[in-house]
Write a structure and sequence with these properties.
The complex is a heterodimer of chains A (about 375) and B (about 90). Chain A has about 375 residues and is α/β, with parallel strands linked by helices. Chain A folds into 2 domains: about 170 residues, FAD/NAD(P)-binding domain (3-Layer(bba) Sandwich), CATH 3.50.50.60; about 150 residues, D-Amino Acid Oxidase, Chain A, domain 2 (2-Layer Sandwich), CATH 3.30.9.10. Chain A is built from 9 helices and 19 strands. In chain A, the strands form 4 sheets. Chain A has an 8-stranded mixed sheet, with helices on both faces. In chain A, strands 8-2-1-12-19-18 form a 6-stranded mixed sheet, with helices on both faces. By secondary structure, chain B is mainly alpha-helical. Helix content of chain B is about 40%, strand content about 10%. In chain B, helix 1 packs parallel to helix 3. Chain B has 4 helices and 3 strands, in the order E-E-H-H-H-E-H. Chain B has a single domain, classed as Arc Repressor Mutant, subunit A. The chains are: A alpha/beta (about 375), B mainly alpha (about 90). At the A-B interface, helix 5, helix 7 and strand 17 of A face helix 2, strand 3 and helix 4 of B. Strand 17 of chain A pairs antiparallel with strand 3 of chain B. The structure holds flavin-adenine dinucleotide (FAD).
Chain lengths: ~375, ~90
């Protein structure tokens, strides 16, 4: 079977890439996934979308992506509800160092047109009254940040892509990528052989392994991040509440449940996604300290997914110079859901050799070797 | 009885008609249906709906029910308050 473009991975990145290519008129696009739509990190994620970042590249990616989310239902002509709850992110500073850093972050964000602002404790309490006032020193808030339903958002891309003729192949694993010198000629799965010269690696937690199949060492690894959900209750919390130093994010979704997660600094670099009692224990303690009222809620379920980490915790959105026709959309380091609209647009522009909408040197595969100083994103949980 | 009146998932009020509509649209694995309809995600964790949906999927795909995978059973088995977990309470549920 021939493919003009073969996308590996049907998470939000792969779905957005396929849609953007098809919308630009590319035909014969095929997407392969070893499981079902959103089986990877996309279907497991917190699905928060925020513009409050510490690096310029991430701020701009997020801002453009949120502008897309605001219009997504209309642009993608989605009959369902993507459940975009745009009630902000409230990020808590719990140390003097964070308080100072957040001041700088807000300056950068404002200079880029992002309406974030610094809040005092009483101002933050006016927005989220059930915060523990003793747990933080100050906060930053951006009211256009928010949250979407990751299943519905990906489904919206998927349905739009299918209408434009994109073909999806589920429960089909990519097992080999064949090259002739410096170009790809074939992708082999457990069910088909795809003859193609253009391949996009959007395999999320398995991006390194897919790179290897093509003989390319992609400098990313995966680590488990756990998350839980509570019973639904009446609406009490507008924004996502987040603290980097306390290691927590916590959001009430429109359905009424609270979802919350935290990272494990000692997580091994592997593909394990089993649930642990330790996460449950630490998560419960953290949320009870910061949002005591949420401690009254019952946990219904916990699960986990993979963060695909890059050395500077920023994505890799790049063609592979050593293997033209091989494109990477990976290393999102825990924030690839919110960037997906731009990921799709930028990869489609790279493939079509169009000028990119945003400057993406900071996301190039070779930045780690070319740049003297790499700016690492620190605003991550 | 009309399949619009038959509730398959009590946690999220999903009817048999909705299950059949999404099956016909190509969402033919339990995980696909779960992601679109929230079946299996509520407080009962699929204890009511999973077997019923398995039979519907099997009938739609003309497969044996045993051949149809359902959702993964996840912790916790019953709802427990976060506060009780944080304090390490005994007999907490
Ligand atoms: C707990 C948690 C919370 C998160 N919270 C947020 C958040 O609040 N905001 C945010 O923006 N991001 C968040 N993220 C990160 C976000 O989920 C990811 O960055 C994003 O979903 C990545 O999407 P993707 O499409 O690139 O990868 P994935 O969704 O992982 O998709 C990759 C796909 O590739 C397929 N695949 C892999 N190997 C093969 C193969 N050999 N052959 C065929 N297919 C293959 C997989 O089945 C999978 O479906 C979170 C992640 C986790 C785990």
């Amino acid at each position: 079977m021939k493919a003009d473009v073969l996308v590996i991975g049907a998470g939000i990145s792969g779905a957005s890439i396929a849609y953007n290519l098809a919308a630009k008129g590319v035909r014969n696009i095929k997407v392969v996934d070893k499981a079902y739509l959103t089986a990877g990190a996309t279907g497991r994620c917190g699905a928060g979308v925020r513009q409050q970042w510490a690096t310029k590249a991430n701020c701009i990616m997020a801002k453009h992506s949120i502008e897309f989310f605001e219009q997504a239902k209309a642009i993608l002509e989605y009959p369902g509800d993507i459940e975009f709850k745009q009630e902000g992110y409230l990020i808590l500073a719990t140390t003097e160092a964070e308080d100072r850093q957040f001041g700088k972050n807000v300056e950068l964000q404002n200079a880029l047109g992002i309406p974030a602002r610094k809040l005092t404790v009483p101002e933050a309490l006016a927005i989220v009254p059930h915060l523990n006032r003793d747990a933080f020193l100050s906060a930053t808030y951006c009211n256009t940040d928010g949250h979407l339903n990751p299943f519905k958002m990906t489904d919206a891309y998927y349905q739009a892509a299918k209408r434009l003729g994109v073909e999806f192949f589920f429960f089909e694993t990519v097992e080999a990528i064949e090259r002739e010198q410096d170009r790809i000629v074939k992708v082999v799965t457990d069910k088909h052989e795809f003859l193609t010269n253009v391949v996009v690696n959007a395999a999320g937690g398995y991006a390194h392994e897919i790179g290897k199949l093509a003989g390319i060492a992609v400098p990313v690894y995966s680590e488990k991040h756990e998350i839980l959900v509570t019973e639904p209750i009446e609406r009490i919390q507008g924004p996502m509440v987040m603290s980097f130093s306390k290691n927590i994010y916590c959001q009430q979704v429109p359905h009424g449940s609270f979802i919350m997660g935290r990272g494990d600094p000692e997580a091994p670099h592997d593909h394990d996604i089993t649930s642990s009692w330790r996460f449950l224990d630490e998560m419960a303690k953290t949320v009870c300290e910061i949002l005591p009222r949420v401690g009254e809620l019952r946990v219904i379920r916990q699960w986990a997914g993979l963060y695909n980490m890059s050395p500077d915790k920023q994505p890799i959105i790049s063609e592979v110079p050593e293997l033209p026709g091989f494109y990477l959309a990976c290393g999102f380091s825990g924030h690839g859901f919110m960037f997906a609209p731009m990921t799709g647009l930028l990869i489609s522009e790279l493939i079509l050799k169009q000028p990119t909408t945003l400057a993406i040197a900071d996301y190039h595969l070779h930045r780690f070797q070319d740049m003297p100083v790499i700016e690492t994103e620190k605003s991550v949980v | 009885m009309n399949d619009k009146d038959i509730l398959i998932c009590r946690c999220s009020d999903v009817t048999l008609a909705e299950i059949r509509k999404w099956l016909a649209a190509g969402y033919t694995s339990f995980e696909d249906l779960k992601r679109q309809l929230r079946v299996g995600m509520g407080p009962c964790q699929g204890q009511t709906c999973a077997e019923l949906i398995r039979k519907e999927i099997a009938a739609y795909l003309k497969e044996r029910p045993e051949a149809v995978a359902i959702h993964k059973t996840r912790p916790l088995t019953i709802g427990v308050k976060l506060k009780a977990i944080a304090k390490g309470e005994q007999d907490e549920s």
